Amino acid sequence: MRSEFEEKLQASGFTELTPIQKAVYEPLKSGASIDALAPTGTGKTLAFTWPLLENVAADDGEQILVLAPSQELAMQTTHVMREWASLLGFKVLSLTGGANIKNQLDRLKKHPEILVGTPGRVVELLNNGKLKLGRLRSFVLDEADELLKDDTAKQVDVIWDYIDDPDMQVALFGATEVDTTVAAGLFDREFERIDQRDVPMPTQIQHEFWLTASDQRNKRLRQLASQKKMQAMVFFNTTKQLKMTANFLAHEHIGMATLVRGDSSSTRERAMRSFKNGDAKFLLTTDVGARGLDVPDLPIVINFDLPRDGETYTHRSGRTGRMGKAGLVITFGNDHDARDLKRMVAVDIEVVKGRPRLLDGEKQTSRKSNTRSARPATKATAPKQKQVQASSEIDDAPIEKVRKQKTAKAKPTETTMSREDRFKKEKKAKRKHKKDKGRPKKKA
């Protein structure tokens, strides 16, 4: 590894590379075409950044092209690669849709060594003759399984037609396996498979399923928002439901941001910045936000809607607990949804009935790791839930109020008065205000 990289790693407190970073270093540096697989949150961006940058020549035009499936992931990858490329004096340019194309064209004239883009914008620039790839040496597909699907795969095919170099290094990266026949047919080569998905990495992600009626899910978010240090990415299956929940939270004056496909690049960038800065408690998004996004120390991921499949659940969950840090994944739904989810994924999920234990920001970080993932939750092992209400209605009281209700003795107020006594009191009040018709009032 370059001495500049080693010095920065030491200054940053890195003690050891992750399994995927170790496994791909030499193959990428030697120019091999690889198909690399590793769990989410294991540092795949740095895994291809370090070795590829070592082969770049300064002021020799565009030599690395990295494709990402979303604007957010492309911008994130740009920031990471720029941080390390600047140590060697290299330039990195982001080519994403929704951004100002004139600024991108002006910066292209400076011939940056590294390009990071989304397929649509790269195709646009190629077709208009504004982008030349004659000096390209390495072509990376980040989240390759997503890029090689449907219309996006057609755009990748167009880009490859402009390259079409048998000596080009092609690197596929992701957490989900790519259809090898599609990749081999498109790029006309065999890939060296480097699979690090089964290599154990420390994990402290806990999975819970909160039984919640459909019409109570917004209130559940309001309940969570009342807690200190609460921050979560909230995933929806449809933009329609996302906007309905956004309107509810806005009416409740709860800080939140939305990340949806179709918004301008600047709007989506502001949403991410607001969430990362802590100004928003919730980032509401569809599965456009499930791929590769890195929010440092994100404590919670919430599935407002049940993911459509196990792969989607895996990618959503990967936004928390990154690089071995603590995280919690909460899914809302009914009994039927809970059964479906358990069939989808191979992780232990605790089903929480009644009103779930409120999550205290300070206590959450100190909870024992892997206590639920190590074994299935049973009646003997699952924490007991004190059911305050017999119905499924959500108590939206703040956490401080809930504690007081549990500890304070009940006072003889209207809420604790028996039904019969309350009716007697109301009847007496009516008689008190009844007009006197000359007959003496009966004693209560």
Automatic annotation (TrEMBL):
Q: Which SMART domains match?
A: DEXDc, HELICc
Regions of biased composition (Basic residues) lie at 425-444
Q: Which PANTHER family match?
A: ATP-DEPENDENT RNA HELICASE DBPA (PTHR47959:SF1), ATP-DEPENDENT RNA HELICASE RHLE-RELATED (PTHR47959)
Task: Give any GO molecular function from the UniProt entry.
Answer: nucleic acid binding
Q: Where is this region: Disordered?
A: 358-444
Write out the similarity annotation.
Belongs to the DEAD box helicase family.
Q: What protein name is recorded for this chain? A: ATP-dependent RNA helicase
Q: Which InterPro entries match?
A: DEAD/DEAH_box_helicase_dom (IPR011545), DEAD/DEAH_RhlB (IPR044742), DEAD_box_RNA_helicase (IPR050079), Helicase_ATP-bd (IPR014001), Helicase_C-like (IPR001650), P-loop_NTPase (IPR027417), RNA-helicase_DEAD-box_CS (IPR000629)
Q: Which residues form the Helicase C-terminal domain?
A: 220-370
Q: Which GO terms describe its cellular component?
A: cytosol
Q: State the UniProt keywords alphabetically.
A: ATP-binding, Helicase, Hydrolase, Nucleotide-binding
The residue ranges of the Helicase ATP-binding domain are: 25-195
Organism per entry: Weissella minor
Entry annotated with the keyword Transmembrane helix? no
Concerning Pfam families, the annotation shows: DEAD (PF00270), Helicase_C (PF00271)
